[in-house]
Amino acid sequence: MRIFESGRSAFKTLLVSSFLLLGLAGFATQASAQAVVCSGTETGTFNPPLTNTQQNLQITVSASYSPCLVTGVSGITSASVNNQFVRDYACQTLLGGGPGTRVFIWSNGQSSTFSYTATTNSVGGNVVSTLTGNISAGLFQGQSAVVVVTLTSISQADFLTACAGSGITSVSGPTELTILPPL
């Protein structure tokens, strides 16, 4: 009889443990449902200057995002981007958009790699780039993200004029980052 009772007790313990683990797994899934909204400023520099002539350019993208409103992860109040790369570029390439990658460094020391496709439009006389994609590595991996950059340092008309002339050495403006919670 005692063996039967201890077997029953072991079964109860196993059953309760299973429910607890399943419950914790559900809680972990809900806790990982993170959303991020950040605003800030972004600057892009080109060396040599960006013109209508296709050429290899050293491009630096720097962004500072603060404040950041984050659910599901503590310790994040801001983020930054400082990406440098060499690319064969012309003004039409920038306006045409295309694929890219950038790394967000969060104020808690973690990072997120954002793989995106850029589209560029004219809105209110400004050049507006929208980067749409996914976090491919790091914090928030697998979540969809969107970055919108409005180049207010130069109007679209001045951008096109400068591209036809001596070129553009830098552009800047406000930026918004949104990382959507997982579905």
From TrEMBL:
UniProt entry tagged with the keyword Signal: yes
Keywords: Signal
Highest taxon listed in the record's lineage: Bacteria
Extent of the signal sequence: 1-33
Protein name, per record: Spore coat protein U domain-containing protein
Organism of provenance: Trinickia terrae
